[in-house]
Amino acid sequence: MSDGNAGFLRAARDGNLDEVLDYLKGSTDINTSNPNGLNALHLASKEGHTNIVTELLSRGANVEAATKKGNTALHIASLAGHLDIVNKLVEHKAQVNLQAQAGFTPLYMASQEGHAEVVKYLLASGANQGLSTEDGFTPLAVALQQGHDKVVSVLLEHDAKGKVRLPALHIAAKKDDVKSAALLLQNEQNSVEMQTKSGFTPLHIASHYGNTNVANLLIQRNADVNFRAKNNITPLHVGSRWGKLNMVNLLLDSNAAIDEKTGDGLTPLHCAARSGHDSVVDTLLERGAPHSAKTKNGLTPLHMAAQGDHEDCARLLLYHKASLNEVTVDYLTPLHVAAHCGNVKTAKLLLDRKCEPNAEALNGFTPLHIACKKNRIKVVELLLKYGASIESKTESGLTPLHVASFMGHMNIVIYLIQHNANPNTATVRGETSLHLAARANQSDIIRILLRNGATVDAKAREQQTPLHIAARLGNVDNVVLLLQHGAAVDATTKDKYTPLHIAAKEGHDEVAQVLLEHEAQHDITTKKGFTPLHIAAKYGQIKVARLLLQKGANPDIQGKNGLTPLHVATHYNHANVAQLLLENKASPHATAKNGYTPLHIAAKKNQMDIATMLLEYGARPNAESKNGFTPLHLAAQEGHTDIVSLLLERQANVNAKAHNGLTPMHLAAQEDKVPVAEILVKFQSETDTSTKAGYTPLHTACHFGQVNMVRFLLEHQASVNATTKVGYTPLHQAAQQGHVQVVSTLLKNQASPNAVTNNGQTPLAIAQRLGYISVVEILKPVTEVQGIAPATEDKYKVVSPETMQEAFISDSEDEGADDFLPQSPIFGKPISEQHVYLPYYEGQKIHKREDSLSIGRGGSASPLDTSFDKDVQRRHAQDLRTRQISQIGASMRYPSYLENGPDYEAEMRYHHGDTLSPKDKTDGGKSRNDSVFYPGDYSTLGSNQDSLEASRDFSRGDSTGDIFEDDDPYSKKRRDPDLFTEDLYARQSFRYGKNAPELSSPARWQDSRGGDRWGPGHTVSSTPLQKSTPMRQDYVYQGQFSSTPSTTDQDSISAGLPPDDSIYLPAVDDDEEKIKDYMDAQITSQSFSAMYSAAPPVPSSSNRLPVGTGAEANRFSSYSGSSFSTSFDPDNVPVDRSPVYSG
């Protein structure tokens, strides 16, 4: 080596930057090295000269140059612990995982010397702590040997991916790394009771993995074996849940409490039984675990075993005298749970032990009902074999056939019919299985029922037939099918609605076409006199309206109130329908009973397009109602300037007088419509015209306190002292009403304060008599005449101007109702958008309404409020709880805890608060109406959706009624057509043909959803049950929702059945590796308690299985994750010959 090169290297080692730069200005090679391979960058990195390293790197020094031992500058800086230089080198792309001779990495060197911050930085930069030396040592091994506890903590707290997980001691417990744990416990900061955010100690983690070595160490260091983590979970709960028998024995030998309960009431025996660990169950029972212990929802360990189909666990529990018929707070027996999950083995064991096959849960659901709902054909066969009643009814009269028909489970429907189930049995609402099949769009079920004796025209309580339901849903196939089997095409409900009326309302033109082809009459009227054409006009269903007109419907047919379809279309602003009617010769002059033409309606409701259209078709702008009011009167009163201008341009009489003398100007004055008055004046409206009683527009404006209109009229030369027939001037009117501003304005415009009425009263005298102090103070100084004051005991008679006394047309109650439905705290939107409405029955709605004829009584004549009185509604809902059995929703919903999983009470409380606590039990312990929870106002509606339905009790009284009310039974119900989407199976192309098999020997086939079906030409499927994801946590039927349920779920709700996604019975994982991965995910996300008190992590909705499939017999969970590196074996550390880098 030349002297120059040696000097350059010395300068770099000594940190002399100026000298280094001088050498570099010459011919010195920046990468020159000494005989050992050390160059300037190596030497500066070793000595910590950051400025030299920075300068060398900026001039292109080779960052990957290695010594003869294979060490780079990064190795050397890491060994020396110079974090700043390590940072500079990594920024210049130094390789963090480059191994020198013997396999040393920068991370190993930093770990060997205890440089925790450098270790942390290298890990964050992608250093792999799994790389070992040639002797098999990892960075963790050398850090342990050297006693660098901080480095050990850093390394343990980072897995191979560099993600921070649990504290180091917890990870040592997870790996069963006794030496690491022992070293960490030497640091006072690491306590055996150290907790994660969820409250779990290292002993909890060791219990999960069955790591008895670490557990022994922790117990020897006085770890609390009964330490309660979040939700009161102890290590024994964890070990029992995961079937770690050795750990369970160790904990019990260390005085762990065998009967400790979680916050939800789960004992270790519950956890073991739920997961099917029979050896742990046996051990716990032998050591005195209480087999009859119940969770807060009343679930026993036998319920848990039944849920997972753990026959051996159930057998052990029964051997130790566990009760077969023990019930939950919702009266669910273990057999109910087994039926729900389709667990045939456990169900057979229970039935062999003489459990009651017809036990009734809440609302009367038997295990057979539940099995039919969940499509558990094998359980159905088993239950019937053991004596379950095929005609058992819920409290609302639902049989198993009703349930299976609604759900569309063809194989079960066929099996029940083969075993003599009656298809014509009716619920308390009078609905047969055919009604429910039609309601759920189950075409194939309808066909089966009709072929096996179902009455095609069976009528429910309000006379609805299945054809009415099919017409409402728009299912043409079902309509044709029913008609082919003889359904009466003109059958009427109690309110005289035919299927054609309903199809017209819903806009199902194809259904209407089929009905008309089968000779449905288009002129039948409802109780309100509405034909199908009226209904189509009301709802803007132009396709149906066109079809009806093509079939000869009379466009001018009148209802009871004289309304034609054109009136109706105009009222609801359906311009396209109005155009269609006019094109088909509908008369624009037709008058209703109150004398209104369609133009009156358009004028009042400011429907410019329709008004223009009517005038173009010859409508008379000066047509008078019965009381003499023209369209201009109505438009003026409402302030519709565009309509007023249009009518006046079409020669409407600007000074037209009604029978009482009111002109458009009077009505504009009454409502303070100054812009309208300006238009009227431009068209030569008189400002001083008087009514029969002598009132001018100025009188009217003064009476109603319309000061702006008063000023306008005075500016347009209105007579300020004009008198009525009883001698009242405008000032008298203003004084009588106490309008201070109007009084002042009149006086400023020379109104006479001394004018007297026919009975001698001045404005001052009237104000004094009525006690208007402010008006008296204004009038007293200017009044000179002493008026005649009436006797004190005489009652003052208020004098008022005429007003419009008309039967105003307001939106009908059935249209307005949905706008006032209470908001659900679950869905956050109107109930009308949540549930399918069912046929409406008279007497199910409370309405706040008066006579819908608004008669002028001195006030403005505006449409009456027809909104719901929510307070009355809610009070009434409380009174109607006892009528729940008459509601199909309550009837087809089976108890709550089957819906949400036997052992997940914590998840339930998470969604409900404390709303799931048991309520008072009545009726022999079988009907707990207070515990029926539905979306709604829990505190005021009794938490019952059907109480809400029942509470909408509409009382008409003696009202003459809204002339637009058509008494539509369906529009008064909550409705959302989207909720009646066809079932997945109903959408398939499979249909029975002439070669359909006899029901005596059907063949089973498997449809695309994985469930077994019955059909022609198929063999029995032997496809094994699939693994499915657990429930979506965003949809829990009894509690709050964070998203809208699926279409199929909502179909279930419409019939009172809980949505399938609301049912979560904890799954059993039989794949040990996936269990490990799942546990990793649980631990690292600090959500360990989810495995014992709540549901597993939420899967994506795309992973959900279709409802009712055979794969739901067990709900398995599969998760992905990663485990920590276990490359370091503490038992094989060669302490006496550990490789240590010495430079």
Describe this structure in words.
- Keywords: ANK repeat, Repeat.
- This is Ankyrin-2.
- Residues 1116-1128 have a biased composition (Low complexity).
- The protein is mostly helical.
- The protein has a domain at 813-891 and 916-975.
- The chain is 41% helix and 1% strand.
- It has 58 helices and two strands.
- It has a two-stranded antiparallel ribbon.
- A hairpin with a 5-residue loop joins β1 and β2.
- α19 (301-307) runs parallel beside α21, α22 runs parallel beside α24 and α45 runs parallel beside α47.
- It is extended, with a radius of gyration of 43 Å.
Short description:
The chain is mostly helical and 1143 residues long.
**β-strand amount:** under 5%
Q: Classify the helix fraction into a percent range.
A: 40-55%
Counting DSSP H or I runs of 4 or more residues, the number of helices is 58
Mean pLDDT: 73
Largest beta-sheet characterization: 2 strands, antiparallel
Class by alpha and beta content: mainly alpha
Shape descriptor: extended
- Spatial arrangement of strands, main beta sheet: 1-2
Uncertain spans, ≥5 residues at pLDDT below 50? 160-164, 810-1143
Total number of beta strands? 2
Distance between the termini: 21 Å
**Rg over CA atoms:** 43 Å
GO cellular component, one term: cytoplasm
Protein name: Ankyrin-2
Organism: Elysia marginata
Keywords: ANK repeat, Repeat
